[in-house]
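Meet my pick.
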Amino acid sequence: MPRTPFLAALAVALVVATPATALADAQGATIDKTGWWNRANAPAATPAGPVTVPPPPGVPAGDLAVGRFGSETTAIAAVGIQPDEGPGATVESFTLTLREDPDAQANRGMEDAALLACPIVSFWAGGENGAWDTAPEFDCALASAPGTRDEDGTWVFDLAAIGAVWFDEFGTVRPDGVALVPDPDAEPSSFQVVWRGGDDIDVVLQATPGPEADDPFASPAIPPDAPVDAGLRSGPSGGGSSLFSPPRITAPPAIPPAAAPDLGAGEGAEADDDEPLESAAPAAGARPRPSKAGDLVGNWQAPSFLLVPVVLAVLLAMSYWLGPAGQPSTVDRRGGVSRALAARPRTPRS
């Protein structure tokens, strides 16, 4: 079999297998999806189910359409863009280029069209002739890029301001593409612009990467001349460093005792009668003698305790002989026999 027909058939098969909506090879960013939405496509509920409005005539498959009738927007488009750089990057240049489809019969009033590219702030999915209520949300107040048209139908949007919003580290909008919409501040007019999709869309981004974020879990570097007791030791052996190592606590410095005042210039020096003498400070380490001031028992001498029983005996004897009233008792304190004889009745003598 000749090789030439075989190679030709293989080339034709590859072309046929390639999707017609293949996206262009972008520089510094990736185009991941496209879509456009038609205001007239508002599915109506019927007994047989919702009815979808077919695309308007004159918009070829795979193209993107944006339109306006008077002051009302009739169609919007969107291009999904994913930059290669992340938050903190600085935009040098950022452009989006689209080209009108000369075969689209729906093109009209392109020369007077005023269009904006605005950042998308909601989730969206690509498609053609999408239902109007599924169109993505966008915010032109954050940033916007007006489109400029050349005579050959090429539109260029400078997206530098939108890129700055995407790369803002403290911003709330992350890259998910731009919406292509009629300028709401432009004079009312009627137009419709149809762009070719697929590889006819170009995006070029040149940006300087931002600084690398510090790893919050990385251990801090220890300088070679760091002191041993810097609180960075970890474990009983003291090797390594850790952010969670407790600081080493050292004992406070010792305070020397106060020096005794000099009471004289030399031996035999007499103290001045007009100046009171100050007591010398106790020697360092001397234990002060405890005081018993106010302790009655503690001030007694040891032999004094021998007199306690004698005093108690005298007090008991005095209370016995004096009685409760403190007077000598007149009761006849006789023995048991005397009391028995006194108790016997006496009989008179005859």
